[in-house]
Amino acid sequence: MAENVDPQATSGPSIDVAQFHSRASKLIAQIKKHQKEATDSFGEGEEWSVSMMKGSTDEANPYIKGTVLHLYLFGYELPDTLTLLSSSSTVTILTTKKKIEFLSSLNSNKPKNSNINVNFVTKNKADSNAQNFKDLAEKVKGGKIGTVDPKMKESGSFAEGWLAALKDASVASVDVSKTVSLSMAVKEDSEYDILKKAAVLTNKIFKLSFIPKMEEIIDAGKSVSHEKISEEVNSAIEDPSKIKLKVPVDDVEACYFPIIQSGGDYSLKVSATSKPSKMKFDVIIASIGARYQSYCASMTRTYFVDPPKKVTGTYETLIDVQNACLDVMKPGNPLSGVRKAAVQHLKSAKREDLIPCLPKNLGFAMGLDYRDSDLILNDKNATLFRANMVFNLTVGFENVPLTDADKTELSSKAEVKNLDKFSCAIGDTYRVLAIDIESGGNNLPELYTKATKQGGDVVYTINEKGDDSDDDDSDESGDGDSDSDDSAAKAKGTMNVDGKRASSRLKTIKDSNVDAVESAIERAKIQADLLKKKNETRLREIARKNQKGGDADEEEEAQELKTYNKGEDMPSNVLPNQVKVDMATECVILPISGNPVPFHISTIKNVVMPEPDRATYLRINFHSAGVTLGKDVPANVVKLIEKHSPFATFIKELTFRSLDKNNLTSAYRQISELRKRVRQREQKEAEESNLVEQEKLVRMKEGKVPRLSDLTMRPALGKGRKTIGQLEAHENGLRFRSNKGDTLDIIYNNIKNCLFQPCEKELMVIVHFNLKNPIMIGSKKHENVQFYTEVVEASEQVDGNRRSMYDPDEMDQEQRERQLRKRLNEAFQGFCKKVELVSGKYGNKKEFDIPYRDLAFTGTPNKEMCTIQPTLNCLVNLTETPFFVVDLEKVDHVHFERITFSSKAFDVIIILKDFTKQPMRIDMIANADKDGLQSWLTDMEIPYTEAPMSLNWKQIMAEVVQDDRFYEDTEVDEVTPKPAGWSFLAEEDEGAGAGDEEEEDESEFSEEEGEESEEVSDASDSDGFDEEDSEESDFDGDEELEEEGMDWDEMEKEAAISDKKRARDQAEMERSERQGGGNKKKRR
After folding, report:
1. Can you list the domains of the chain with their CATH numbers?
2. pTM: predicted TM-score of the whole model, two decimal places
C-alpha cells in the first residue's frame, strides 16, 4: 500500500517517472477530448486547469478523489500538496522543499517522448502560502478551474487557503470528476497484476480466515458477535502472516471493515456495518474487501445453515441473475443495462416477486478508488462500458418474505425457523474484456475473485427433521440428567456412530483429508472449464496464425547439388585413375571406368581404409535410399533422397584398390578433413539460422550509469572457465564487460523475463535474463544469461583447533556472513530497481520477478535433483546448470504421470504450444508436493491432467503435429465425436482407474477360487500372477505362524522381513515401468 507519510523520510521509496508522465498525459488528453465533445463546461479552445488538492491526512476517508489521484500519479499520498494540470500540458506542484527534492526526478529523468512539463513551487510557512495561492489563482484566472472533488471533502488549513484564494480571484469552477473517473477506470497492464493479487488476497481471507472461523462457531455452537468476527477477519487482512500468508504487511490493508450479517437484520448497501448482535445459524452474508498496494478487490458470499427449499431456490435464481448481468458487461453497452438485464431475467423466469427485492445499485467501478460514484451500475447511468474497466458486481435480494408454510420441512432446532424474511447476495470483482470478433463477441468479463459460490458449497446442514423425535426420547429417558450427560460426552471426546470414541488426532486427520478432497473437487471443476477454454483459445490462435502465415510455412524444396558447370572446370591435374579431392568446390573426383566423376562431399556418408594386404584399399560409403538416415545427414540431402528415391538408382559404396598407397592415403585424409569442415560449417549455420539481428546498444549519456560489479557470468564469455566483470544499464539494454575486455550486450526488447533470486538458503545471489530470441555466446546460442555473486568469504583459516558452540570467532563469522548476505541482497535489489526505472524512462519498462520460495519443490528436470520455484511468469531453477526456465506463456498443457497410491513420487510433463518441440519434464517429485503444484497451476489458469502410467511422448507429439483437427471435438467428417485437445489424457486416466478397480474386485476371491488360481499359476509361466502369488503366500504364512504358535517377537521379525520384501518388489516394479519404452501406453 502506498504510504501517506513523507516519502523522503526513508531512502527506500522512489517515484516511477515514466508512469507519472504517461498517466498525466493520459489525464490531460482525456479532459481535452471531453472539452472538444462539449461534455463538460469547458468551452472549446478555452484555457483551463484542473486542481488536485491533497489536504491533511484523513484515515477515516481514504477514498477522497484528491487522495486517489495522488496515488494514481505519484504512487504516494503527499499531504498538504496542491497539483495543477493545465491545458498547456504543464503540471504545477506546490509542496514542501523535501517533497520537491523527492519529486525532482520528474524533470531530471523525464522520458524523451513526454510532452509534460513539471513546475515546482515551494511552500512558504511565513504567510501560510497566501502569496503562493494568490499567484497560482491569478495564473488560472483567465480560464476555468476544474475540480475533482466538488463536495470539497479535503480538510485542513492548506486546503481551505486554496479555496479562499480561488473565491477571491472569482475563478469559475467546473466539475471534471466524471472525466477523471473514466480516464482512471480503463486500467493499464501493470494495474491488472496488482488487482489480481488483491483479489487473491481476498480469496485467501475468505478461505483461511472467515470460513474456518464461521464453521468453528457453527460446529461448537458458540455465541459470537458479528463485530467480533469482523475484527478477527480484519486482523487477518492487516497481518496476513496470521493465516500463514507471506505478504508484506505494508502493502495490504482492508478496503472497509468486514461486514458480517445474519439473523434477519440485513442491509445490502455499501454503507452496511456489522452489528454487535450474536451471529445466528441461519442465513449469513459476508462482505470482505482487501487492498494490495492501494488497489481494491471485494467479494460477497452468502452461507446457509439448514435452509428451506424456498431459500435455496431463491439463491439458485440469484446465480442465474448474476450470469444474466455478466452477459451485458461488454464494451459499448451502457452501465444501466446491467440492472435492466437482471429485471428482464426475473420476468422471463417468472420470478416477478423478487424484482422489488432487487437493490437499486448492483455494483460500481473500482481500482484505487473502492467505489467510484460516477460509474455506478444502476438504471440511470448511460455511461458505456469500455474494455479493461474493473467492476464489482454485487447482485442480491433483500428482505424476501419467508412464511411458516415455507418452513414446514425444517427441524424444530433450525434457527431459520425464527426468520420471517431473509436476504442473500453474491459479489465479485470482474475485468471487462475487449470484444473478440472470432469468438462472436461472447467473451464474458474475467473473474478475479474465484471463491466458490455454487449451492452445494455454501449450504450447511446441522439439524435434520428426523432428529427431533430422537432428541425428545433421549430427553425423556435422561430424567433431567442431560446436562451431565453432555458434559460427560465432551470429557470423553467425539463419539463415532458405532459408539466408539475417536481420538483428536484421528479427527484432525479426517478433517485434513476432507479439506484435501474438497480442494481436489474444486480444482477438478475449474480444470474442466480451463481445458474447454484452452481448446477454444488455441483454435483461434491457430486460425490467426494460418491466416497471417499463408504459404510461409510450406517446406522448402530440395536444391540440386552442383560441383562443376562443365567438364573443363575440373582441376587440370586430375588423372583418370586417381582419386582427387577438390577442397575449393567441396567435391571428391572418383575414377569410374577411366572417367573422372565428381561427387559432392555432402553425399558421402563416411570413408574407410580396410586393412591392406599387398595393395591399399579405400572404401567410400554414400547416403542412399532404403536405409535409416541419421541425424548428421544434411537436411538437403535427405530431401534429395526422398525426391529421387521412387525412380532413381543410388550408389551405396565404391571401393578403390591401388598398389601405390600414397594417393589413397592422401585422399582418405583430405576427405575426412573436408567432411569435418563442412559439418562444422553446417552446424554453425544451423545454430545461427534462427538468430534475430539485435539493435545496437545506446549508451546512457545523462546521469550516473547503474552498475553492478564483481559478477560472474553464466555461460562463460570467451574460452575461460569463469567470466568475471561488471553489468551496466543503458538506454535500450544492458552491457556486461568482463575484466579481460570482452563485452556482451542484452537489449531490453529481447528480454522476455527478468528474474532476481536473493540468497535465501542459497550460496549465491542471482540476476537472470530469459530471452525472446537466442544470442550467440562463444560458439553456441543461448536463451538464458545469468549474473551472480557467491556468498562466501574470500578466504577462511583452517586449523586443527576445536571450537566450542559459544566460540566468539565462530559467532563473528556467522554474523559477517549474515551481513554479507544482506549487503549483497540490497545491492542486487537496488540494481534491479534502477534497471526498471531506466528501462521505463526510455520506453522499454522491465520488471523483475522473484521466485516464490514457499511454493518451491524438488524434482529432476535434467540429471540432478534440484529445487524448482515458481515465479509470476515462469517455473525456474536458476542455481544449477543447465538452467531450467519454463515460460508459462509458452505452456499449452501439463500432464502428471505415475499418479498412484503406491508410488512415492510422480513426474510432470510440460507440453509447449510449439508442438515441434519435445515436452519438458520434471521427474521424481514427491507426492506431498502434488496438491500444491496443482493448485498453483489452477491459479495460473494452466490446464492439467493426470494418469498412473508413463506415455511415449515422442510418438504422441509426432501424431499431434500431423493432426490438423487436434483441438476440434469431431473427426474430419465433422460428425464422429473425438476428444478435443489434451482431454484424451484425462480419458486414459479414467480408463486406467476403471481397470484398477476391476483388478481390485477380482482380487477379492474366495478360498476355493484362491486354490484354483494357485493351481493355474503353478502350471503357467506367466509373470502376471506374481502379485497374487505374493499376496497368497503372505496369507498362507500368517496361517502357518498361528499353527506353529510363534510368539510376538518372532511374528514382528517375520512381518518386518515381509514388509522389506514387498517394498523391494514395489520399487523394482516402478523402475521397470519407467525404463520400459516399448510397453508404454500410446495415444488413442
Report:
1. 7-185 (3.40.350.10), 189-466 (3.90.230.10), 573-666 (2.30.29.210), 707-793+813-834 (2.30.29.150), 855-998 (2.30.29.30)
2. 0.52
